[in-house]
């Protein structure tokens, strides 16, 4: 005889969620105090504060700025896959950002002589000029964000973020954005 199972219960048990019973009611859930939600709101606020500058001055989107910042900080040309690895963006987002930046004359693409199949990307003269114009403006926004915080508070915050990432590392192995 075949045992009937509930796929939802099996999934909950597989990821460690106990089924709801009168003896174990689910805890109250408040979105406003849910840590992942608070992080997302924080991220959104930080991105908006920074993007106000590069959108106003250059009409750039966040992915374009992140790509520019990575290329602007690199000592030489990078493959698109290296930009993906250094950022929190997936390859489709990087590909679109590279295409827009190339169309606007902010980067150049050269054949990678080391492997012949890929390209090395680097900022063009116009791209370098935009990066050098934006970097100090964005550092000023960063300073405003951090104003009123002591160096110890900033280091403590960074330590907490490192620890959370370490806590998540096993969970995220093999999971893509």
Describe this structure in words.
This protein is mainly α and 177 residues long. The chain has a domain at 46-138: Arc Repressor Mutant, subunit A (Orthogonal Bundle). It contains seven helices and two strands, in the order αααααββαα. It has helices at residues 7-14, 35-58, 62-73, 80-86, 91-103, 125-146, 151-172, and strands at residues 107-111, 119-123. A two-stranded antiparallel ribbon has the order 1-2. α2 (35-58) crosses α6. It is globular. The protein starts with 6 loop residues before the first helix and ends in a 5-residue tail after the last helix. The model has no long low-confidence stretch (mean pLDDT 87).
List the helices and strands and how they pair.
Layout: H1 7-14, H2 35-58, H3 62-73, H4 80-86, H5 91-103, E1 107-111, E2 119-123, H6 125-146, H7 151-172
Antiparallel strand pairs: 1-2
Helix pairs in contact: 2-6, 4-5
CATH C-level class of the domain at 46-138: Mainly Alpha
Order of helical and strand elements = HHHHHEEHH
What fold name goes in the CATH topology slot of the domain at 46-138?
A: Arc Repressor Mutant, subunit A
What is the structural class? Answer: mainly alpha
Fraction of residues in β-strands: 5-15%
Which regions contain 5 or more consecutive residues with pLDDT less than 50?
A: none
Helix content: 55-70%
Identify the overall geometry.
globular
Number of strands: 2
Q: In DSSP terms, counting alpha (H) and pi (I) runs of 4 or more, how many helices?
A: 7
Largest sheet: 2 strands, antiparallel
Distance linking N and C termini: 42 Å
CATH architecture designation of the domain at 46-138: Orthogonal Bundle
What's the mean pLDDT score?
87
Look at the structure and name the CATH superfamily of the domain at 46-138.
Winged helix-like DNA-binding domain superfamily/Winged helix DNA-binding domain
- Strand order across the largest sheet: 1-2
Radius of gyration: 22 Å
